[in-house]
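Treating backbone geometry as a discrete language has practical consequences that deserve illustration. The amino acid sequence and the backbone structure tokens for this protein are reproduced below.
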Amino acid sequence: MQLILPDWNAPRGVKAFTTTRFDGVSGGAYKGLNLGDHVKDDPEHVKQNRQILIDELGLQRNPQWLSQVHGIDIIEAKVDGVCLEADGCWSQEKGQACIVMTADCLPVLFADGDGKRVAAVHAGWRGLLDGILEQAVGGFQKPENLHVWLGPAIGPDAFEVGQEVRDQFVAVQAQANQAFTPVEGSSGKFLADIYQLARQRLNSVGVNFVSGGEYCTYTDAERFYSYRRDGVTGRMASLIWIE
């Protein structure tokens, strides 16, 4: 299985990965390791893909799968593995993986400085705008000691949005203007840098150690699923746990 490993300085004992679309048993538009059970892939294929992931990583507990709704709710990961509605989860239990699924949206992984609490968050532009990253940081005692990794998402040269999206971000934080570049020859359209927007929000609540942000799911069709590129597609997973 080909995985993306965060390039960060998280404490020893914290394990984190993002999957790619390589391997797996799904076919057609979902070809590869599709882990999303809500995208009309064959349910049996998704089940097999999830078991491949669990076996490959040697997870002793079921990960906390989520039904993501582009909100800002973050729940505690449970040992029973029941899927719950939220866009993030956290854990202090050894071996309990927190997991989010994406295919252009931004997966964000958190680990506190002593390696005793971790979290995973799904940040689409709506969740990012509404403060899901600030919500996640609020669950940790010392934001200044947090290690945060921005996983594979749609890159700044591919994420086109309208004037209304830019205006909403700027209304909350003036410096967000720096993350939007006008699209030449297209009035009211901008290219948005979701990685920069995330860094701005994290920095504003005292997070100093932010890594990642070098991938583009839209342009790297070999490795990544992309909803904007393909419409019907699978989902990657980003997960983190305390060993």
In short: Residues 43-57 form the longest helix (15 residues). The chain has a mean pLDDT of 96. The helical segments are 43-57, 125-130, 132-137, 163-172, 194-204, 227-230.
